[in-house]
Amino acid sequence: MAISMYAASAPTFVQFLTSLSANLDKTAAHAAAKNIDPAIYLGTRLYPDMLPLAMQVGRANRQAINACARLAGVDPLVLSTAEPSMDDLKQRLDQTIRYLNGFTPAQLDGTEDKEIVAKYPSGVERRFTGQAMLLSLSLPNFYFHVTAAHCILRHCGIDIGKKDFNSAQHLFSGDCACQPKA
């Protein structure tokens, strides 16, 4: 059975952005408990040549927005590009989640072979099929930025783990084939 382009995009993006939003809540709580200015976390990087937390969250948002908009052939949601506070990041995630929840299977299913032209600020244009764009560009980049944001928060001492990265983790039972038998 073929996988649905809708199932592979909008709900998947929402699942991980919802987890990321919850992790920002935990970050704000951690900052309050430790009397730390939450703005400190926004500029934190894993390495000097990597993007800071605020930009990792922004890039994850944009990957999700642009993927679904391109597949559906609609204008993408435009988010503020102003330097964000922690509350601003949360609001942008909420805006993105609401936007993505507005897509329907009718808009995204059947777009596997749709020609997608991605235009970059450098002026470069790349052409993809819908499926190639989603599976080879959008999802990998999205997961990269969500993972980087998660790792930054872990590096900062925020008490989050795998279950916090993947909000669907609760769906896995103790009978998972990947778990060792007692």
Topology, pairings included?
Layout: H1 5-8, H2 10-34, H3 39-42, H4 53-72, H5 86-101, H6 105-108, E1 115-119, E2 125-129, H7 130-155, H8 162-165
Antiparallel strand pairs: 1-2
Please identify the top-level CATH class: Mainly Alpha
Write out the strand line-up for the largest beta sheet, numbering strands in chain order.
1-2
- The CATH architecture category equals Up-down Bundle
Please tally the helical runs, counting DSSP H or I stretches of 4 or more residues: 8
Fourth-tier CATH superfamily name: dinb family like domain
Shape descriptor: globular
Stretches where pLDDT is under 50 for at least 5 consecutive residues are 173-182
Average the pLDDT over all residues and give the rounded result.
91
Largest sheet: 2 strands, antiparallel
Counted beta strands: 2
* Integer tally of domains: 1
- Radius of gyration in whole Å, from Cα? 17 Å
Report the structural category: mainly alpha
The percent range for strand residues is 5-15%
**Helix share, percent:** 55-70%
Q: Helix and strand succession?
A: HHHHHHEEHH
Q: Could you tell me how far the N terminus lies from the C terminus, measured between alpha carbons in angstroms?
A: 34 Å
Describe the structure.
The chain has a single domain (5-170), classed as dinb family like domain (Four Helix Bundle (Hemerythrin (Met), subunit A), Up-down Bundle), CATH 1.20.120. The chain is 57% helix and 5% strand. It is built from eight helices and two strands; from the N terminus they run ααααααββαα. The protein has helices spanning 5-8, 10-34, 39-42, 53-72, 86-101, 105-108, 130-155, 162-165; strands at residues 115-119, 125-129. A two-stranded antiparallel ribbon has the order 1-2. The protein is globular.
